Amino acid sequence: MSDVQQHIKNLSKLCRFCGGFVQTNKDKVKQFKPLKCSQYANKIKQVWQIDVEKDRPYLHPTSFCHRCRLKLYRPPKFGSPARASWYTHWYGETCTPCQKVESLTKGGRPAKKKIFRSAKKLEC
Q1: Closest CA to 80 of 41, 122, 37, 47
Q2: Mapping DSSP to helix (H, G, I), strand (E, B) and coil, where does residue 8 land?
Q3: What is the pLDDT of residue 87?
Q4: How many C-beta atoms surround the C-beta of residue 2 within 10 A?
Q5: Where are the beta strands (DSSP E) in the chain?
Q6: CB 62 within 8 A of CB 55
Q7: Mean pLDDT over residues 57-77, rounded?
Q8: Residue 9: phi, psi to the nearest 5?
């Protein structure tokens, strides 16, 4: 698989608005499907002022998650919800979205920090 195809595949795993995974394990259990931005283009433009019709597939993710869909239809009363910004970036070894996908797919609990204790206990 070429770098461009791998990059587009990595972008398809990320949400267009929050930058998280489009479909988490919890979403898979509840059978939530990733939503295409093109289907909700009018509502997205109305609520978040983002024109997703001009998005390029190698630069912007094409889907968004169920949590962002809820924010789309029930926006907060004060301010706007946090959005991930997708700047022009070059795919390759230093591609930030690809590195994020790799770190998110790594999974598991972080390694526990070892605390150094002296062999001799302090007595009170």
Answers
A1: 47
A2: helix
A3: 66
A4: 8
A5: 35-36, 63-64
A6: yes
A7: 85
A8: -65, -40
